[in-house]
Amino acid sequence: MNFALFSHVPWPEGTDPKQVYDDITEEFLLGEELGFKSAWIAEHHFTRYGLGAAPMVLASNLLAKTTTLRLGFAVLVSPLHLPARVAEEIATLDILSGGRVDVGFGRGAAGSEYKVANVPGEESQARFQESITMIQGLWTNRNYSFEGQHYKITGANLVPVPVQKPHPPIYIAATRTKATQEFVAGSGHPLIIGVVLDTEDAVALCHTMVDLAKSKGNNMAMSQIPFFRYFYVAETEEQARADTKESLNWNIDMIQWRRTFDFGSEVYEKMEDFRKTRTELPPSYDSLYENRAFIGSTDQIIAKIKALQDQGIEHFGCNFSFGGMPQEKVVKSMRLFAKEVMPAFK
Q1: Residue range 2-345 in CATH 3.30.750.24
Q2: H, E, C per residue of the chain
Protein backbone atom coordinates (compact mmCIF):
# COMPACT_ATOMS: atom_id res chain seq x y z
CA MET A 1 0.00 0.00 0.00
CA ASN A 2 1.32 3.43 -1.00
CA PHE A 3 0.22 6.08 1.48
CA ALA A 4 -0.24 9.72 0.51
CA LEU A 5 -1.23 13.03 2.10
CA PHE A 6 -3.84 15.41 0.73
CA SER A 7 -5.04 18.89 1.65
CA HIS A 8 -7.33 21.58 0.27
CA VAL A 9 -5.25 24.00 2.38
CA PRO A 10 -8.37 25.33 4.13
CA TRP A 11 -8.55 28.89 5.49
CA PRO A 12 -11.26 29.23 8.19
CA GLU A 13 -12.17 32.59 9.68
CA GLY A 14 -9.64 33.79 12.21
CA THR A 15 -6.66 31.94 10.74
CA ASP A 16 -3.67 33.56 9.07
CA PRO A 17 -2.79 32.56 5.49
CA LYS A 18 0.95 32.50 6.24
CA GLN A 19 0.35 30.14 9.14
CA VAL A 20 -1.83 27.92 6.95
CA TYR A 21 0.99 27.65 4.40
CA ASP A 22 3.54 27.04 7.16
CA ASP A 23 1.36 24.29 8.59
CA ILE A 24 0.91 22.47 5.29
CA THR A 25 4.66 22.69 4.73
CA GLU A 26 5.29 21.17 8.17
CA GLU A 27 2.74 18.44 7.44
CA PHE A 28 4.34 17.48 4.13
CA LEU A 29 7.87 17.53 5.55
CA LEU A 30 6.72 15.31 8.41
CA GLY A 31 4.97 13.06 5.92
CA GLU A 32 8.24 12.52 4.06
CA GLU A 33 9.97 11.68 7.34
CA LEU A 34 7.23 9.22 8.32
CA GLY A 35 7.27 7.32 5.04
CA PHE A 36 4.39 8.76 3.02
CA LYS A 37 5.18 8.39 -0.69
CA SER A 38 3.37 11.46 -2.00
CA ALA A 39 1.42 14.55 -1.01
CA TRP A 40 -1.28 16.31 -3.02
CA ILE A 41 -2.75 19.81 -3.10
CA ALA A 42 -5.94 21.16 -4.66
CA GLU A 43 -6.55 24.24 -6.80
CA HIS A 44 -9.30 26.64 -5.66
CA HIS A 45 -9.94 30.33 -6.25
CA PHE A 46 -11.62 33.20 -4.39
CA THR A 47 -12.79 31.10 -1.44
CA ARG A 48 -11.81 30.13 2.09
CA TYR A 49 -12.38 26.51 1.09
CA GLY A 50 -8.73 26.36 0.05
CA LEU A 51 -5.64 28.55 -0.38
CA GLY A 52 -4.63 26.76 -3.58
CA ALA A 53 -5.09 29.75 -5.86
CA ALA A 54 -1.45 29.58 -7.03
CA PRO A 55 -0.85 25.83 -7.08
CA MET A 56 2.41 25.99 -9.05
CA VAL A 57 3.90 28.48 -6.60
CA LEU A 58 2.85 26.41 -3.61
CA ALA A 59 4.11 23.22 -5.23
CA SER A 60 7.46 24.84 -6.01
CA ASN A 61 7.92 25.81 -2.37
CA LEU A 62 6.99 22.32 -1.14
CA LEU A 63 9.19 20.53 -3.66
CA ALA A 64 12.15 22.75 -2.78
CA LYS A 65 11.87 21.76 0.89
CA THR A 66 11.47 18.00 0.36
CA THR A 67 13.80 15.45 -1.20
CA THR A 68 11.93 12.19 -1.82
CA LEU A 69 8.23 13.06 -1.43
CA ARG A 70 6.29 13.20 -4.70
CA LEU A 71 4.05 16.26 -5.09
CA GLY A 72 0.69 15.84 -6.78
CA PHE A 73 -2.10 18.12 -7.93
CA ALA A 74 -5.53 16.84 -6.97
CA VAL A 75 -6.65 18.56 -9.00
CA LEU A 76 -5.60 21.27 -11.42
CA VAL A 77 -8.72 22.75 -13.02
CA SER A 78 -7.32 22.76 -16.52
CA PRO A 79 -10.16 24.64 -18.30
CA LEU A 80 -9.26 27.76 -16.30
CA HIS A 81 -5.76 27.96 -17.80
CA LEU A 82 -3.85 28.23 -21.07
CA PRO A 83 -2.76 24.64 -21.75
CA ALA A 84 0.67 25.63 -23.08
CA ARG A 85 1.39 27.60 -19.92
CA VAL A 86 0.38 24.66 -17.72
CA ALA A 87 2.62 22.35 -19.77
CA GLU A 88 5.58 24.72 -19.33
CA GLU A 89 5.13 25.20 -15.59
CA ILE A 90 4.69 21.54 -14.77
CA ALA A 91 7.68 20.63 -16.92
CA THR A 92 9.75 23.20 -15.03
CA LEU A 93 8.60 21.80 -11.69
CA ASP A 94 9.41 18.30 -12.87
CA ILE A 95 12.98 19.26 -13.72
CA LEU A 96 13.57 21.27 -10.54
CA SER A 97 12.28 18.41 -8.38
CA GLY A 98 14.17 15.66 -10.15
CA GLY A 99 11.00 14.08 -11.50
CA ARG A 100 8.76 14.15 -8.41
CA VAL A 101 5.56 15.59 -9.91
CA ASP A 102 2.19 13.87 -10.38
CA VAL A 103 -0.64 15.68 -12.16
CA GLY A 104 -4.34 15.25 -11.53
CA PHE A 105 -6.71 17.15 -13.78
CA GLY A 106 -10.36 17.94 -13.12
CA ARG A 107 -13.20 20.19 -14.22
CA GLY A 108 -13.74 21.60 -10.73
CA ALA A 109 -17.02 21.96 -8.87
CA ALA A 110 -17.59 25.71 -8.43
CA GLY A 111 -19.26 27.76 -11.12
CA SER A 112 -17.96 30.92 -9.46
CA GLU A 113 -14.39 30.01 -10.42
CA TYR A 114 -15.38 29.77 -14.08
CA LYS A 115 -17.10 33.15 -13.90
CA VAL A 116 -14.02 34.84 -12.47
CA ALA A 117 -11.87 33.23 -15.18
CA ASN A 118 -14.43 34.39 -17.78
CA VAL A 119 -14.84 30.83 -19.01
CA PRO A 120 -18.45 29.84 -19.82
CA GLY A 121 -19.47 26.85 -17.74
CA GLU A 122 -21.09 25.19 -20.74
CA GLU A 123 -17.64 25.06 -22.38
CA SER A 124 -16.01 23.29 -19.44
CA GLN A 125 -16.23 19.74 -20.80
CA ALA A 126 -14.78 20.58 -24.21
CA ARG A 127 -12.05 22.77 -22.72
CA PHE A 128 -11.26 20.08 -20.16
CA GLN A 129 -10.72 17.39 -22.77
CA GLU A 130 -8.86 19.64 -25.22
CA SER A 131 -6.55 21.09 -22.56
CA ILE A 132 -5.42 17.68 -21.29
CA THR A 133 -4.89 16.41 -24.83
CA MET A 134 -2.85 19.50 -25.70
CA ILE A 135 -0.73 19.42 -22.53
CA GLN A 136 0.18 15.78 -23.06
CA GLY A 137 0.89 16.46 -26.72
CA LEU A 138 3.26 19.30 -25.91
CA TRP A 139 5.13 17.11 -23.43
CA THR A 140 5.69 14.31 -25.92
CA ASN A 141 5.95 15.75 -29.45
CA ARG A 142 8.27 17.92 -31.47
CA ASN A 143 6.73 20.57 -33.73
CA TYR A 144 3.40 19.87 -32.09
CA SER A 145 0.20 21.19 -33.64
CA PHE A 146 -3.29 21.04 -32.23
CA GLU A 147 -6.54 22.60 -33.37
CA GLY A 148 -9.60 22.23 -31.18
CA GLN A 149 -12.78 24.15 -30.63
CA HIS A 150 -11.18 26.33 -27.95
CA TYR A 151 -7.40 25.89 -28.19
CA LYS A 152 -5.00 25.98 -31.10
CA ILE A 153 -1.23 25.74 -31.42
CA THR A 154 1.01 25.23 -34.44
CA GLY A 155 4.52 23.77 -34.69
CA ALA A 156 5.30 24.19 -31.00
CA ASN A 157 8.39 22.82 -29.27
CA LEU A 158 7.97 22.94 -25.50
CA VAL A 159 10.83 24.43 -23.48
CA PRO A 160 11.69 22.85 -21.15
CA VAL A 161 10.45 19.27 -21.48
CA PRO A 162 9.73 17.15 -18.40
CA VAL A 163 12.40 14.89 -16.97
CA GLN A 164 9.90 12.03 -16.45
CA LYS A 165 9.31 10.01 -19.60
CA PRO A 166 7.15 10.07 -21.54
CA HIS A 167 5.71 12.72 -19.18
CA PRO A 168 4.70 13.20 -15.53
CA PRO A 169 1.99 10.72 -14.51
CA ILE A 170 -1.49 11.98 -15.37
CA TYR A 171 -4.62 11.21 -13.37
CA ILE A 172 -8.09 12.45 -14.26
CA ALA A 173 -10.99 13.09 -11.90
CA ALA A 174 -14.52 11.95 -12.68
CA THR A 175 -17.70 11.52 -10.67
CA ARG A 176 -21.13 11.14 -12.25
CA THR A 177 -20.82 12.97 -15.58
CA LYS A 178 -20.93 10.38 -18.37
CA ALA A 179 -18.93 12.49 -20.83
CA THR A 180 -16.11 12.80 -18.31
CA GLN A 181 -16.20 9.08 -17.55
CA GLU A 182 -15.98 8.24 -21.24
CA PHE A 183 -13.06 10.61 -21.71
CA VAL A 184 -11.12 9.23 -18.74
CA ALA A 185 -11.71 5.63 -19.82
CA GLY A 186 -10.48 6.38 -23.31
CA SER A 187 -7.50 8.46 -22.26
CA GLY A 188 -5.27 5.65 -21.03
CA HIS A 189 -4.78 7.48 -17.70
CA PRO A 190 -5.99 6.35 -14.26
CA LEU A 191 -8.95 7.81 -12.46
CA ILE A 192 -8.35 9.85 -9.30
CA ILE A 193 -10.89 9.75 -6.45
CA GLY A 194 -11.40 12.81 -4.26
CA VAL A 195 -13.13 13.18 -0.91
CA VAL A 196 -16.54 14.26 -2.23
CA LEU A 197 -18.10 10.83 -2.84
CA ASP A 198 -19.19 8.37 -0.19
CA THR A 199 -16.75 5.46 0.01
CA GLU A 200 -19.20 2.85 -1.32
CA ASP A 201 -20.04 5.03 -4.32
CA ALA A 202 -16.36 5.84 -4.90
CA VAL A 203 -15.36 2.16 -4.93
CA ALA A 204 -18.23 1.38 -7.31
CA LEU A 205 -17.05 4.19 -9.60
CA CYS A 206 -13.54 2.72 -9.62
CA HIS A 207 -14.85 -0.66 -10.75
CA THR A 208 -17.07 0.99 -13.37
CA MET A 209 -14.14 2.96 -14.77
CA VAL A 210 -11.81 -0.07 -14.83
CA ASP A 211 -14.42 -1.98 -16.84
CA LEU A 212 -15.15 0.98 -19.12
CA ALA A 213 -11.45 1.49 -19.83
CA LYS A 214 -11.08 -2.20 -20.66
CA SER A 215 -13.96 -1.94 -23.13
CA LYS A 216 -12.01 0.82 -24.88
CA GLY A 217 -8.82 -1.21 -25.04
CA ASN A 218 -7.08 0.43 -22.09
CA ASN A 219 -5.76 -1.15 -18.91
CA MET A 220 -6.75 0.86 -15.83
CA ALA A 221 -5.87 -1.18 -12.75
CA MET A 222 -7.54 -0.52 -9.40
CA SER A 223 -4.05 -0.36 -7.89
CA GLN A 224 -3.24 2.71 -10.03
CA ILE A 225 -6.12 4.84 -8.71
CA PRO A 226 -5.27 7.38 -5.97
CA PHE A 227 -8.13 7.17 -3.46
CA PHE A 228 -8.49 10.04 -0.95
CA ARG A 229 -10.57 10.24 2.24
CA TYR A 230 -11.12 12.73 5.05
CA PHE A 231 -8.89 11.10 7.62
CA TYR A 232 -8.07 11.08 11.31
CA VAL A 233 -6.84 8.42 13.74
CA ALA A 234 -6.72 8.67 17.53
CA GLU A 235 -6.23 6.34 20.47
CA THR A 236 -9.99 5.80 20.76
CA GLU A 237 -13.05 6.24 18.56
CA GLU A 238 -14.48 8.71 21.07
CA GLN A 239 -11.37 10.89 20.91
CA ALA A 240 -11.31 10.76 17.11
CA ARG A 241 -14.93 11.88 16.89
CA ALA A 242 -14.43 14.65 19.43
CA ASP A 243 -11.34 15.96 17.64
CA THR A 244 -12.90 16.04 14.17
CA LYS A 245 -16.54 17.07 14.47
CA GLU A 246 -16.06 20.85 14.31
CA SER A 247 -13.54 20.72 11.46
CA LEU A 248 -15.46 18.24 9.33
CA ASN A 249 -18.68 20.21 9.79
CA TRP A 250 -16.85 23.40 8.72
CA ASN A 251 -15.58 21.68 5.61
CA ILE A 252 -18.98 20.35 4.52
CA ASP A 253 -20.74 23.60 5.36
CA MET A 254 -18.18 25.50 3.30
CA ILE A 255 -18.81 23.28 0.28
CA GLN A 256 -22.52 24.03 0.55
CA TRP A 257 -22.08 27.74 1.30
CA ARG A 258 -19.74 28.62 -1.56
CA ARG A 259 -22.16 27.13 -4.08
CA THR A 260 -24.82 29.68 -3.10
CA PHE A 261 -22.87 32.62 -4.57
CA ASP A 262 -23.66 33.77 -8.08
CA PHE A 263 -21.70 36.97 -7.45
CA GLY A 264 -18.70 37.49 -5.18
CA SER A 265 -17.92 34.86 -2.57
CA GLU A 266 -18.14 33.99 1.11
CA VAL A 267 -14.69 35.37 1.99
CA TYR A 268 -15.93 38.47 3.84
CA GLU A 269 -19.09 36.89 5.22
CA LYS A 270 -19.58 34.87 8.41
CA MET A 271 -20.32 31.16 8.31
CA GLU A 272 -22.48 31.40 11.43
CA ASP A 273 -24.79 33.83 9.61
CA PHE A 274 -25.13 31.35 6.75
CA ARG A 275 -25.83 28.48 9.13
CA LYS A 276 -28.67 30.46 10.73
CA THR A 277 -30.36 31.32 7.44
CA ARG A 278 -29.88 28.27 5.19
CA THR A 279 -33.01 26.32 4.30
CA GLU A 280 -31.48 22.85 3.86
CA LEU A 281 -28.71 20.95 5.60
CA PRO A 282 -25.69 19.17 4.10
CA PRO A 283 -24.83 15.60 5.15
CA SER A 284 -24.53 15.31 8.92
CA TYR A 285 -21.31 14.55 10.76
CA ASP A 286 -22.64 11.10 11.63
CA SER A 287 -23.43 10.40 7.99
CA LEU A 288 -19.97 11.51 6.89
CA TYR A 289 -18.36 9.50 9.67
CA GLU A 290 -20.18 6.34 8.62
CA ASN A 291 -20.03 6.72 4.84
CA ARG A 292 -17.23 8.98 3.69
CA ALA A 293 -14.56 9.84 6.25
CA PHE A 294 -12.00 7.42 7.68
CA ILE A 295 -12.07 8.52 11.33
CA GLY A 296 -11.53 6.28 14.34
CA SER A 297 -9.16 4.23 16.45
CA THR A 298 -6.11 2.51 14.97
CA ASP A 299 -7.94 -0.84 14.77
CA GLN A 300 -10.91 0.77 13.04
CA ILE A 301 -8.68 2.56 10.54
CA ILE A 302 -6.70 -0.58 9.74
CA ALA A 303 -9.95 -2.43 9.07
CA LYS A 304 -11.27 0.34 6.81
CA ILE A 305 -8.07 0.50 4.75
CA LYS A 306 -7.86 -3.29 4.48
CA ALA A 307 -11.43 -3.33 3.16
CA LEU A 308 -10.32 -0.94 0.43
CA GLN A 309 -7.25 -3.06 -0.23
CA ASP A 310 -9.53 -6.08 -0.70
CA GLN A 311 -11.18 -4.12 -3.53
CA GLY A 312 -7.80 -3.62 -5.20
CA ILE A 313 -6.97 -0.10 -3.98
CA GLU A 314 -3.23 0.26 -3.32
CA HIS A 315 -2.82 4.06 -3.41
CA PHE A 316 -4.54 5.60 -0.38
CA GLY A 317 -4.50 9.30 0.48
CA CYS A 318 -5.12 10.76 3.94
CA ASN A 319 -6.72 14.20 4.28
CA PHE A 320 -5.62 14.92 7.87
CA SER A 321 -5.80 18.72 7.71
CA PHE A 322 -9.42 19.40 6.77
CA GLY A 323 -11.55 22.29 7.95
CA GLY A 324 -8.89 24.08 10.00
CA MET A 325 -7.97 21.09 12.15
CA PRO A 326 -5.53 22.35 14.84
CA GLN A 327 -1.98 21.63 13.76
CA GLU A 328 -0.99 19.84 16.95
CA LYS A 329 -3.82 17.36 16.36
CA VAL A 330 -2.81 16.85 12.72
CA VAL A 331 0.78 16.10 13.72
CA LYS A 332 -0.25 13.78 16.56
CA SER A 333 -2.59 11.85 14.28
CA MET A 334 0.04 11.53 11.56
CA ARG A 335 2.58 10.16 14.01
CA LEU A 336 0.08 7.68 15.43
CA PHE A 337 -0.80 6.57 11.91
CA ALA A 338 2.86 5.97 11.06
CA LYS A 339 3.49 4.08 14.29
CA GLU A 340 0.36 1.93 14.54
CA VAL A 341 -1.30 1.75 11.11
CA MET A 342 1.45 1.74 8.47
CA PRO A 343 3.14 -1.40 9.85
CA ALA A 344 -0.08 -3.37 9.23
CA PHE A 345 0.44 -2.88 5.48
CA LYS A 346 4.10 -3.79 5.09
Answers
A1: no
A2: CEEEEEECCCCCCCCCHHHHHHHHHHHHHHHHHHCCCEEEECCCCCCCCCCCCCHHHHHHHHHHHCCCCEEEEEEEEHHHCCHHHHHHHHHHHHHHCCCCEEEEEECCCCHHHHHHCCCCHHHHHHHHHHHHHHHHHHHHCCCEEEECCCCEEEEECCCCCCCCCCCCCEEEECCCCHHHHHHHHHHCCCEEECCCCCHHHHHHHHHHHHHHHHHCCCCCCHHHCEEEEEEEEECCHHHHHHHHHHHHHHHHHHHHHHCCCCCCCCCCCCHHHHHHHCCCCCCCHHHHHHHCCEEEEHHHHHHHHHHHHHCCCCEEEEECCCCCCCHHHHHHHHHHHHHHHHHHHC
